[in-house]
Amino acid sequence: MIVLTREQIEQLIDIPKSVLEIEEAYRATSAGRVNLPPVGHITFPELEADCHIKYGHALGSPIFVIKIATGFPKNVDTEYPTGSGVNVVMSAQTGQVEAVLYDEGMLTDVRTGLGGAIATRLLARRDSKRVLIIGTGRQARYQIESHVAVMGPNLQFQVWGRLSERADSVVNEMSKICSIERVDDLESSVRDADIIVTITGSTIPLVLSDWVKPGTHITAVGADAPGKQELEVALVEKADVLVADHIEQCVDHGEISRFVQTDDTRKSTIVELGQVLNNAKLGRRNDSQITIADQTGIAACDIAISQSVLNSWTKNLNKT
Amino acid sequence: MIVLTREQIEQLIDIPKSVLEIEEAYRATSAGRVNLPPVGHITFPELEADCHIKYGHALGSPIFVIKIATGFPKNVDTEYPTGSGVNVVMSAQTGQVEAVLYDEGMLTDVRTGLGGAIATRLLARRDSKRVLIIGTGRQARYQIESHVAVMGPNLQFQVWGRLSERADSVVNEMSKICSIERVDDLESSVRDADIIVTITGSTIPLVLSDWVKPGTHITAVGADAPGKQELEVALVEKADVLVADHIEQCVDHGEISRFVQTDDTRKSTIVELGQVLNNAKLGRRNDSQITIADQTGIAACDIAISQSVLNSWTKNLNKT
């Protein structure tokens, strides 16, 4: 059994390659080529904390992956990071444990960031410039990094958070790689944005329908468990194009779950990210449409990035 | 993050202590003191193989556990064992990874064996002597060891398997610790047995209702996933006492699942092992009753044995 630490894994990640592999994971998922059982979930209500267990098997692959990732937001006031985890890589041929990638949640952060940026690039207007990041946690930083990596250096970022000092921290760290400023007036920043990325643990809508102008794209990443919500349902109703990373997961616990709850037939209006990657006509069709990508995070991406890290590790081994 | 290998873990297991801890896990489960989400399950149909992910949190415990265990029966013809796995121990206070117990499935084997023996001791007639083991895999050996450890050395074992050479292997290995012989006539051995332990991957009934005499106890361990079955439904119907390690799991995919499928009200006739441990009157009431214990295996026992191993490891560390 191979055990790789976070430091080792960081050295092995190849972002441009991972973008292609994660896109392929979305395509394979939407084509039914990945066995993705329902996500496991355990909660720790007193700490408002939880743990997700995402697992699956890309059909034909020699491995399968079980990804364990925790979210303990109250750690923010302690010495511990607010999330951790491991990716366990198993042989799909013999059932033996191949590797434990002790990434402390980093691979989840990377694939979530890249997944968000892939969705944004696919669905936002070509002339988009202003990106409003709503949220100031660890994943806010990964979203910014990934959007720069996937869409280039010309985006102008704004960041909003409930606590202005946390938004300042994001600005301080990220100004090394992009143009970024803190904003305090959420409504007017939403009105001005071309692209909005929501990445909070909110359970009440932060972005209201009336604020969002035609042509805006929204990548909603925060809602990854029942009860979480960042967008007003009226905004989801107003959107012209609704894209889910995985329809079943998003209907169960994503941003669009409330939209479908009130009317089950609405499910048929949603397309999957992998379908849009295959056929751009299923995405944005003109510059005045509002598009929303609901990203709950899928095991197919955990498999892709774990496989990628292990491949790099094996390749390096063979070199030495 | 602590990583312990199978060899290290073997040194740290204390069987008599584990028996008490596993009994307590059953009690806590039946008293609603363990958060046990539904078991995760992924299958590899071409290999007739699968992987279970069992996880949960004993309320108030500083840790929670995610247990990954595979069953790849076709490995029997290869260099690999037919199962493997890891127990991942996480902090329930900070969400950090505390330990990876790379037990290769051994902790599952140990707690499954002990769970079976605990159920047998609780439910079999006091004067039981003849134990018929149906199955010749790895877990058959653990069931024998555990029954000897929990019930003493005076039991007389018989072992039956589809392939007589595999039954002979069990006899050869286990004759060091108990009286044991191979049997070839399943029906007459069932008729003679006081205790029957079924531990196969069968999907068709092996033990028929007419064969089982009054007073027999059956511990059914094999059925741990939908589609598996070792006992004729008529036998489950005939039983006077039906005990499940976890009613919801057993109704979903245990030996008794078919019994309940045809008539949902039958669920109310089942008691949980933890309830019987607390109140013996819920178990066998006389020597002519037929009792069945359906053991699907619960995360509470994985938590108990993982905690026990980690406690021993910490204790040893402090000594040195």
Characteristic terms for this protein:
homodimer, 320 residues, alpha/beta, ornithine cyclodeaminase, domain 1, Rossmann fold, 8-stranded parallel sheet, 7-stranded mixed sheet, 11 helices, 37% helix
In whole angstroms, how far apart are the ends of chain A?
20 Å
Largest sheet of chain A: 8 strands, parallel
Question: Whole-number radius of gyration of chain A?
Answer: 19 Å
- The top-level CATH class of the largest domain in chain A is Alpha Beta
Q: Helical amount among residues of chain A, as a percent range? A: 25-40%
| Quaternary assembly | homodimer
What's the number of extended β-strand segments of chain A?
15
CATH architecture of the largest domain in chain A: 3-Layer(aba) Sandwich
Overall mean pLDDT score of chain A?
A: 95
Query: How many domains make up the 3D coordinates of chain A?
Result: 2
CATH superfamily of the largest domain in chain A: NAD(P)-binding Rossmann-like Domain
Produce a short descriptive summary.
Two copies of one chain form a homodimer. Chain A has about 325 residues and is α/β, with parallel strands linked by helices.
Provide a descriptive summary of the structure in words.
- The structure is a homodimer of 320-residue chains.
- Chain A is α/β, with parallel strands linked by helices.
- Chain A folds into 2 domains: 2-107 and 300-319, ornithine cyclodeaminase, domain 1 (2-Layer Sandwich), CATH 3.30.1780.10; 125-298, Rossmann fold.
- The first copy, chain A, contains 11 helices and 15 strands.
- Chain A has an 8-stranded parallel β-sheet with strand order 10-9-8-11-12-15-13-14, sandwiched between helices.
- In chain A, strand 3 and strand 4 form a beta hairpin.
- In chain A, helix 3 (106-123) packs across helix 4 (138-151).
- Chain A is globular and about 55 Å long.
- Chain A starts with a strand and ends with a helix.
- The mean pLDDT of chain A is 95.
- Chain A binds chain B through residues 1, 3, 35, 37-38, 40-44, 47, 49, 51, 53, 55-57, 64, 66, 68, 70-72, 75, 78, 80-86, 88, 90, 92-97, 100, 102, 104, and chain B through 1, 3, 35, 37-38, 40-44, 47, 49, 51, 53, 55-57, 64, 66, 68, 70-72, 75, 78, 80-86, 88, 90, 92-97, 100, 102, 104.
